[in-house]
Amino acid sequence: MTFPGSAAWRHEDARTGFEVARFRRQDGGWLVEGATSAVEDGVAWAVRYSLTVDPQWTLRSARIGGLGARELTVEADGRGHWRLDGEPAPHLDGCLDLDLEASAMTNTFPVHRLALPTGARADAPAAYVRAADLGVDRLEQTYEHLSPGRYAYAAPAFGFACVLEYDDTGLITRYPGIAVRHPATVGA
């Protein structure tokens, strides 16, 4: 499978802004580097990220920086144990994914990692990084494969549910109320 060399999403409804990401194969997995900025509820924020996922689409490391916020370094062992800025993070035990509040793109990884057949549903708790302060919480999430390119997604802590849409490479194209992918991409 080949992602485009880059992709972009326009934030919609909940916030106004834009996200851009670049994809590069690395050690059988992917290095994804991107930036996103928006205004939400009258607050402006910007986040840049560098995320590494292994060949099974499990997050292994992340560097995240924000406008006026601290830098955050994340390490994961691929078996559900995490370190934040070098310190153990037991509240994230069992999480295999990282969900950046600032990013629609990070909802791509669980879909690949889970590889659900149509009709199947799975829990996918994630390390959830807030956009404004880069704080990290555990977020319980579920994905259900409805049909090719369509997944029911729910994050009960936020009382949020929607149907996410993906292209034929499994890259998210529409996150209702959050973002829609811009049709232009650059290189493979």
TrEMBL record:
Protein name as it appears in the record: Glycolipid-binding
Species of origin: Amycolatopsis tolypomycina
